[in-house]
Amino acid sequence: MWHERRSVRVFVRDYVMLKILELLSKENMHGYRIMKELEKLFDVRLSPGVIYPILRNMVDMELISASEPSTGGRRVVVYEITQEGREYLESNRRALESFDKKFSRLKECGLIEFMKRVGEVVRNIDRFSDEDVDKLRRSVENFLKEISSLGVSR
Length: 154
Prior knowledge:
With 154 residues, this protein is mainly alpha-helical. The protein has helices spanning 8-26, 31-42, 48-60, 83-91, 93-108, 111-124, 130-148; strands spanning 29-30, 64-67, 78-81. Helix content is 66%, strand content 6%.
């Protein structure tokens, strides 16, 4: 499933899919609860705009099913893992363990927090003064120089 050269976006999507299957293998859940459980696991908020397209794709792939049980007027979609989903999860167990290890290492070295901060910078860059942009540029250059010394290449 996961190959080293795939994009970060694909890594995140595939990892989230497997974590959703892992969650649903334990109990059925509605989308909001899945989102909150993933937030606890990742210590990162995944928006509905990220989670619900993944859930729809998983339904289309027949890895999970969606139903709307009677709830007294409020529309709630409950997701359940299918047999195909259980088989997919088991056949990708090693990939999930690899993802878990990668994510743990990312958290351990502070890159999860770093990525959150980069997101804040991206959202607010237009408000930065020229001095702040210059300071940021120097910081990024130093960071890139440091990680280049780790032997990691593009």
